[in-house]
Amino acid sequence: MTLPTTNLDALLSDLNGLDLITEPNQVAKLSQDYYHFSPVLTPQLKDKVGDVVIRPANEAEVLRVAQACVNYKIPLTVRGAGTGNYGQCIPLAGGVILDMTRMSAVKWMKPGLACVEPGAKLAAIDKQTRDIGWEIRMAPSTYRTATIGGFVGGGSGGIGSVTYGQLRDRGNLLAVRVVTMEDQPRAIELRGDDVYKVAHAYGTNGIITELEIPLAPAYPWTEIIVSFSDFMSAAQFGQTLSDADGMIKKLVCICPDPIPKYFAALKSYLPEGTHCAFLMISETCLEPLNEFVKDFKGTIVYQKSAQDASRGAAIAEYSWNHTTLHARSVDPTITYLQTLFPDDKNLQLLEHMYHHFGDEVMMHLEFLRYGGTARPASLQLVRYSTEERLNEIIKYHESKGAYIFNPHTYLIEDGGMKMVDTAQLQFKQKVDPYGLLNPGKMRAWLEKDGK
What we know:
Protein name: FAD-binding protein
Number of helices: 16
Keywords: FAD, Flavoprotein
Pfam families: FAD_binding_4
CATH topology of one domain: Vanillyl-alcohol Oxidase, Chain A, domain 3
Oligomer: single chain
GO molecular function: D-lactate dehydrogenase (cytochrome) activity; D-lactate dehydrogenase (NAD+) activity; FAD binding
């Protein structure tokens, strides 16, 4: 969709002096994310581009952009680094792409808490907060490039979730400041449960300009790979380690055969046919970790000290959706699912699915805390054949009691909790009455208008 030239010219005139990008190739590049992980989303989103990219330097400039878009009824889609996988920042209706990466300051920090701008990269935040002994609680595998605003607006959890749960858990996001798209845009602060009106809302109901986030103690994280002879030994090891209250951990990732074959840079460490656990553990816990490894007849095949781990590629870049990225670099027909398994310490359903689908759906586990207990989530690698077969795989999981967070839709509700978030809808009705913010992504809004 392309804006009428008169509207676009008027908008650009009103915003003279801001950082504007109109060069078509640059605009197209900044209209994209990693939606191509999904063969379902690819044909739906491949031709969607904005008309102009604007990079505000501060909240005052965001307010100027919001006012101009309201005046001319021009859609606005917010983006960070564009590392999402569901088309969160793809502009379905063209218009303005608001690139927040210039707003990257850590405004203040103190033990356990930091105030940051949305364009701050997660790794850059940690670089500053670790000077006082703290770090962010959780991050996606795109940690080096992802922004905190994009993570809160479009993400759910990641490295660190084995200890701290997900972003949606109370205490993992303390406050946000957002700019509205009312007739007279304003900046408002949300605290407490009100933060969830805009968290994981894909920027459909507010432009985040500041966040107050909790921090975690920054332990010296050693990186370890443990090899096992069979999948269930690896999976049970992951469950037991994740449950162990005395073990300080940041990542418990299980990649069974054949997934390790996709990790070219680690090939020399990974025996043929191995089933692996990728771990980030505090160096203070190495001695008890060895006992866990012995209990499950594993073998440590790779180990980096915390000091060495701070240099070069991190083991976390083989976990979460980087596992999918590595696999797709070898076989681009591979796609993925996101599954939460029941709270069953015996992992019976997980074992059933592993045997039932075989190599068609390659099990990949990321342990996280959910509802107060450690549970396996799976970002399974799927050998894609047809959309019909993919839907059959999803339905089979759901029929057996596994919960699918569908990564093959750009609608907020259909990909996540499968229900309308009335608080998010009501907030959008108030602060974005013309539906200009990232239109087409909130099913509740579309249904409200009868579309």
